[in-house]
Amino acid sequence: MDEQTARHWDEMYRARERQWSGRPNPHLVDVVGALPPGSALDLGCGEGGDAVWLARQGWRVTAVDVSATALERSAAAVTAAGVASLVDFQRHDLARTFPAGRFDLVSAQFLQSPLDFPRAQVLRAAVRAVAPGGRLLVVEHGAVPPWGAAEHRHVRFPTPQETLAELDLDPDGWHVERLDAPQRQATGPNGEAGTLIDHLVLVRRR
């Protein structure tokens, strides 16, 4: 566990009583809503919105984060939702350790960091964690939001095609189900309305 990384994310979560809405990520709901439940790995689970939703659909969830504060809030959320028996929380610095096992769904929702982060290495570990017949869903920011700071405007986000290439998949062993850049309407921290661009990669192991 890198203490600087853990401290950064703990401080971010402690800065507010709640960082996120508590609702599941919309692309996760869109993709997974029609799938039969199984085992799921939630990478960077934050305050537990996705873990709660998955468990309510009947998934057995392994939820992972580097922040102890985030994991505490996630545990409280699944307990309040009555689905704690379906969720196993694990603390991992994904740059150093990765959960064991194979999963029917591996979900990496906005697994992006302002810190030095071996993104490609972590995504390839996520590939290895997908069970036969299972899926990897990667959703990332595709652009700085309209209300984002001016100094972030120069940031370049990998395209879905570039992310797919980084996964280094065997084409005989995988099927690409989605590769696109959907847009959605969102509200900023001060009530600003705007359009967000996301990058989405959905692949299924044969």
Protein architecture, described:
The chain has 206 residues and is α/β, with parallel strands linked by helices. The chain has a single domain (3-205), classed as Vaccinia Virus protein VP39 (Rossmann fold). The protein contains six helices and eight strands. The protein has helices at 3-14, 26-32, 49-56, 68-80, 119-128, 160-167, and strands at 39-43, 60-65, 87-91, 103-109, 130-141, 174-180, 183-187, 193-205. Strands 1, 2, 3, 4, 5, 6, 7 and 8 form an eight-stranded mixed sheet that branches. The model has no long low-confidence stretch (mean pLDDT 93). This is Class I SAM-dependent methyltransferase. Pfam families: Methyltransf_25 (PF13649). Keywords: Methyltransferase, S-adenosyl-L-methionine, Transferase. It comes from Micromonospora antibiotica. Residues 41-134 form the Methyltransferase domain.
Looking at the structure, what is the overall shape? globular
Number of helices: 6
User: Any idea of the CATH class?
Assistant: Alpha Beta
Question: What sequence of helices (H) and strands (E) makes up the elements?
Answer: HHEHEHEEHEHEEE
Domain Methyltransferase: 41-134
GO molecular function: methyltransferase activity
Keywords: Methyltransferase, S-adenosyl-L-methionine, Transferase
Protein name: Class I SAM-dependent methyltransferase
Write the layout of secondary structure elements.
Layout: H1 3-14, H2 26-32, E1 39-43, H3 49-56, E2 60-65, H4 68-80, E3 87-91, E4 103-109, H5 119-128, E5 130-141, H6 160-167, E6 174-180, E7 183-187, E8 193-205
Parallel strand pairs: 1-2, 1-4, 2-3, 4-5
Antiparallel strand pairs: 5-8, 6-8, 7-8
